[in-house]
Design goal:
single chain
Length: 128
């Protein structure tokens, strides 16, 4: 994917992931609520956020997509996150970005909130 010759990800991807996770943490209660309601209505799925457009009065477009709806993304990593997450404690977020890119995260929400980032190579980031 974005790996360099040493087998690690370039610095810009790590910085982007950290920015994503900080932003997600700041909005986690909203995303958790959306994920819980979406799961009750549609079963396993993902909170999808369109990050390329922002309105001061409306914010970013956000929706819960069922697992079936995400199949058009053709993203096996995202599908695996959706299949494996525990909806009682976790939720999945995908950020839809410019250039047809997306970043997906499997997150744990609870009393001792932590963010768990699952990407190729099972990289995990914990922010407390």
């Amino acid at each position: 994917m974005y790996e360099d010759e040493r087998g690690s990800l370039p610095d810009w991807t790590e910085r982007e992931r950290l920015r994503d996770l900080i932003w997600i943490k700041g909005n986690s209660s909203t995303f958790w609520s959306i994920a819980q309601q979406g799961y009750k209505e549609f079963g396993p799925g993902v909170v999808a956020i369109e990050t390329t457009s922002y309105s001061a009065d409306k914010g970013m477009k956000c929706a819960y997509l069922s697992q079936e709806m995400t199949e058009e993304f053709d993203n096996m990593g995202l599908q695996q996150m959706i299949e494996e997450y525990d909806p009682q404690e976790e939720y999945v977020v995908t950020l839809l970005k410019a250039g047809d890119r997306q970043s997906s995260y499997r997150l744990r929400y609870g009393r001792h909130e932590e963010l768990v980032m699952r990407k190729p190579g099972e990289i995990r980031v914990y922010l407390n």
